[in-house]
Amino acid sequence: MGQILAEPGRTTNLSEKRPGAAGLEFNVHMLALHLTVSGRVQGVGFRWWAQNTARALGLAGRVRNLPDGRVEIIAQGEPDAVRRLLRFAIEAPTTTSRPGWVDDYDLSWPEPEPGKIGFYAG
Taking a C-beta distance cutoff of 8 angstroms, is the pair 26, 10 a contact? Predict the structure, then answer.
């Protein structure tokens, strides 16, 4: 199952830490995530859903299909909004009418990049 990079150089099982737990915020005012999901996520509207959800949450970043069938989401913004996007993207069953399903995912918390605006599908 998915692993998260909780702090630089430290990987933690999801059962030990959840998004929003202490130690996951690198910037008090902004948080960034790099999420790659696998499952039935291409050809079902997952990118469209992710783009619209991220925009509604006021996030900046992008979502794109990867050649191996996974979908990559890079997003940053207000920490609670980033955590909500993560929860909505991986929860099962979905509470947001997210298309498709997510079997597994990889998650890391890169440093936010100041000045990014807009959320795009590509």
Answer: no
